[in-house]
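YM 10:42: Glycosyltransferase family 2 protein sequence, as discussed on the call
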Amino acid sequence: MSVPTSDHSPSAATVAGAQRPRVLISILNWNGLQKTLTCLESLKDQRASTPADVTTLVIDNGSRNDEAAALSAALASTDVVLKCLPNNLGFTGGHNVAIKMAIEEGYDFIWLLNNDAKVTPGTLRELVAEIQQHPRCGVVSPILRDIDDGTVARCVNTHEWDKRCSRRILDIEEARRFQEEHPLETWVDGTAVLFRVSALKEVGLLDDRLFAYYDDNEIGVRLAARGWSSRCVFTATVLHENRKKLEEFPSYLSYLLQRNELLFYYANTPPKYRSLLWLRLMDKAWFDASRFHQYGLEGHSKAAMLGIYDFMKGNFGPPAHDRPVPASMYALRAAAGLFYNIKNTPMRLKKRLAAR
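YM 10:58: structure's back
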């Protein structure tokens, strides 16, 4: 696999002439020892190639005792700082521990990095150079490429509020144009994001209600509201695992995605797009839950229904997908399924007639 790297980019000279910033790298581990060690191995060149004072922090997010002990032993002879938490605080809670540390100890930037990511040479240097060149930039991300085939998996994103969804711009030239023309409408994925600590100090920590997923959407909106832009750095690359099929996703993911999608759009949709917002959000949510059921993915359907239920009840935080679904939710799913069957009947007939 051939993936572009950034070993010889001229932008590094800009950083070299500036005062050395302090950078904290935060990596979460939750029963993922080998992935974490592989991620750390890919970081070995970053300190030498980046004109910055870099500290690497690994936060064990409530792993099993044997996992935490093995991680501690593996890092004992390194300069990586290890902090072990008694419970899994999720992406938001775990990284918030690091963000608080960065604020309290006077770091300039904090790099939140997934432990299943592999960093290509020169990436941190490019991220620091880019964010220093744009004083009102609050967060930057490298291009995220599929770890298997190197294709662009994530680049620049924007919210399409009228459709209550995100548009992912994967064409690099289009992405360049969009973020230059719409700096406050751009947001970047949370897989490998470098934040300006002063921006986080102004807008606040990651939203702990989310636990994981939609946290990058949410912090991007909060930054933009205060005039901080988000940027993709096209000279930097991080490789990342990407699940290809829904069957590969754990059911707790469907719970978190459903609950957090509802929370994000209900809390952040601009006033001009809020007409009938509750009904529109529920329409999409019940369509998804019904579709999972129709396709035989009952575990995902139940998790989605619980996500809907907890959003309506205002229950947030860690996933609570492994419990009985209230009977009323099954009744609503049945009604929703009947509604969508009736709604889609004309389209099915049209397709059958066209096929004759």
